[in-house]
Amino acid sequence: MRNIPMFVTENGAASLTLDQIPYRKAAYIQIRDSLNPKALLLECCEFCRAAGAEKVYASGNPVVEEYPLYTSVLLFSGNRRLLQETDFIAKSVTEEELDLWREIYNDRMKDVAGAAYMTMQMAQRYCKAGSGFTVINPDGELCGIGVVEKDTVSAVISLYKGMGADILSALCRYLPSERVLLEVSSSNVRAIRLYRRFGMECEGELSRLHEIFL
Predict the structure, then answer these.
(1) Which backbone phi and psi does 114 adopt, to 5 degrees?
(2) Where are the beta strands (DSSP E) in the chain?
(3) What is the mean pLDDT of the chain?
(4) Domain boundaries, the chain
(5) How far apart are CA 17 and CA 124, in angstroms?
(6) Whose CA is closest to 98, among 54, 60, 69, 134?
(7) How far is it, in rounded angstroms, from Cα 180 to Cα 206?
(8) At what angle do helices 189-197 and 164-172 cross, to 10 degrees?
(9) Predicted pLDDT at 214
(10) Which in 16, 133, 207, 212 has the greatest CB count within 10 A?
(11) Can you identify the CATH homologous superfamily of domain 74-205?
(12) pLDDT over 80 (residue 41)
């Protein structure tokens, strides 16, 4: 199912993310411009429901704040020198590894609020951009995966308990400076605890998602 970058009605314009409907039964609305946002939100919701969405989330306009907060994306920052030293190694995921990489991502992120289901097309984009990583220990065993986009770590996934710090440190070697930026869902308590453990602080919210009940 395709997304609609610009859904336009007489009440305004919004972006609709529909590609998660087959996997999460969820659709996402971002209101772009509207003189009547309540009416636009209703139109967008009706369209998403008709497309098969069982849950609809929205952002982009104060009108959505009338509905319950589902989750927010937080930006944490810190210094790479404060991270735990590790002999784990992160390397760019290859085409041959993509099936397993995507399977791990979807399995570990399925309960994280707001996390998208990783389609093969999305995984291939990360692979082509060099943003998707696998992390191995000194024995060559796969211990985790992650996503590093430009100056930001947007996913840290450990396969084994107690290895999160090693996974994070290995991924952060790919950042262009000593400054560490991390994106995390406000509901991902375990990740937030890990980041705070190394002196990282929340700089603020990047976005908010509210669950729309109509």
Answers:
(1) 85, -10
(2) 4-9, 12-17, 26-33, 55-59, 69-79, 89-92, 132-136, 142-149, 152-158, 179-185, 201-211
(3) 95
(4) 4-66, 74-205
(5) 19
(6) 134
(7) 16
(8) 70
(9) 77
(10) 133
(11) Gcn5-related N-acetyltransferase (GNAT) (3.40.630.30)
(12) yes
